[in-house]
Design brief:
54% helix, 4 strands, Glutathione S-transferase Yfyf (Class Pi), Chain A, domain 2, globular, 9 helices, binds glutathione, four-stranded mixed sheet, Glutaredoxin, single chain, alpha+beta
């Protein structure tokens, strides 16, 4: 049994999607970041970073970092085929993409959304955000090229949990206006992901 502390439209969407795809038993606990619920002392006890999401497994095992949650869920539900198995070479590329998304694309996005955390110059936030936007477009451009040559999914014909992460991040478009018009292969992946019944349930929940 899983408990996912989530906020609409946030990084909780990736583990939420993985849980739905896995057919796992889970409950959602709303931790609305817009209302500052991620800074409540009770929540900080669970996740001292004050970020959403947090995942609790079987009432006692607590973890943060959405990409790590996605990997754990994929491993605990192998029948859902959310990741290549440990004996498959493609697992290396699964790790590669998920790590790239969480290590390069997502941090650039967080720099855009929280520029004040990345400069000591009060007048420098716009420059930080602008540079982040540039970087996000470059990164999506490379991923789009990869998908054009080797798609429609990150691992070719095979949907995996890293595609859920792409779906989530590519929906954050304030930091990359018209993402889907500019990157059609990314759009194709996102459309395929969105058409999945499990992802539909996640999308509807996040839409309120
Ligand atoms: N790398 C973390 C990032 C989590 C994160 O930054 N979440 C945002 C919502 S998308 C958040 O909690 N923001 C509130 C804040 O940083 O104050 C993850 O993927 O779990």
């Amino acid at each position: 049994m899983y408990t996912l502390y989530w906020s609409p439209g946030s990084a909780s969407m990736a583990p939420h999607g993985a849980l739905e795809e896995a057919g796992a038993r889970y409950e959602l606990r709303l931790t609305n970041t817009d209302a500052g619920a991620h800074r409540d002392p009770a929540y900080l006890k669970l996740n001292p970073n004050g970020r959403v999401p947090t995942l609790v497994v079987d009432g006692s095992f607590v973890m943060f970092e959405s990409a790590a949650m996605v990997m754990l869920i994929a491993d605990r539900h192998p029948e859902a085929r959310l990741a290549p198995g440990p004996d498959e070479m493609a697992r290396g590329h699964f790790y590669q993409w998920l790590t790239h998304l969480t290590n390069s694309v997502q941090p650039a996005m967080l720099r855009y959304y929280y520029p004040e955390r990345h400069t000591t110059d009060a007048g420098g936030t716009e420059a930080v955000a602008n540079k982040a936007m540039e970087e996000i477009a470059t990164l999506w451009g490379r991923i789009d090229q990869h998908l054009a040559a080797h798609g429609p999914y990150l691992l070719g014909d095979r949907f995996c949990a890293a595609d859920i992460f792409v779906f989530m991040l590519s929906g954050w478009q304030q930091c990359c206006p018209n993402t889907y018009e500019r990157f059609p292969h990314l759009k194709r992946l996102a459309d395929l992901a969105a058409a999945r019944p499990a992802m539909q349930r996640v999308i509807q929940k996040n839409a309120g």
